[in-house]
Amino acid sequence: MKYQLIKVLYGGALAICALSALAGPVADLSGGQTGRIEFDSITPPDRWQFVRKNLDNTKEATVFGDLLMPRKTSGKVPAVLVSHDSGGVTAKLYDVWAKELNNAGIAVFIIDSFKPRGIDSTTNNQGQVDVSANVADALYGLKLLATHPQIDAKRIFHMGGSRGGTAVFETYWDMVRRAVITDDLKFAGHIPLYQGNCNTRFRFDRGNTNKAPMLAFMGSADDGTPADACVAYYTELNRAGANIKWKVFPGAFHNFDGSTQQTYLAQGVTAKNCSIEVFLTDVKGGGLGEARDYKTGAVINGFGEWNKAFNACNSRGFTVAANGAAKDQAVKEVIDFVKGL
After folding, report:
1. What's the CATH code, domain 2-259+324-339?
2. Is there a smaller number of Cβ atoms within 10 Å at the N or the C end of the chain?
């Protein structure tokens, strides 16, 4: 049996936080395992085939996550499953989120959807793997966490930024959840940070019954995922029955919870110039689904026209920058959100 010391960056210093037995992917955590955990997932080629459970072009995958438990526990604790952004698993997920959430008595499960698939970053090339792979990992991770004897299965939350924020947003919808989970298990709440795809809307909301709360955070200076596009989207979804609240931090850019000084990523992919949406269906053979440009009303017919419109509106170049005030406020509000439910 292999053993691995899990090293976590807290305040820039390496600290050994757990000793984890690695014996291949596990089907449940009934033994109370912590640290580095491998589990089975899938890599779907796109959202359509994922929600339709079309496995013809879907590959099996083994991924891993780091399960970090609070040091002092009394009874079962809530947990936050974290989906990373396009840069992969980085120090902020440990230095900021795991540290503060653990200190507040909340377990954290940080899933790496890239390294097990041989990917370092998708910032400049989102086509390396579809975001539905991150979504699948999160849903299989939820099933796994729910079996842990120290975790309250009814208080598992999903959080992530940018690409991870897209994954968080998409696991909210019944159609997406049912692609992996067939019973009533669901996330207790959803926390997207500077979510991607507010300008390119992949919609699963028709017929949705989930009323779990979603708390979204954005920056007013974000030139990668403009806050006004997300606010408009969330407002429309709430009119149809969703339960989304949000906060826009003044002057904050993309990745405000990181440590990067203001940097312009000239090759970073952004959909900020897009205004297209498609209503997906889980019916096999259902085609593209109803699609349009939601600003002009122009109808988009079939995958060919959709792909053409998608490629034409995507562009490159956006700014990332740390913002201590926004980060600290987001951490506080996330802790309040999790502990208040």
Report:
1. 3.40.50.1820
2. N
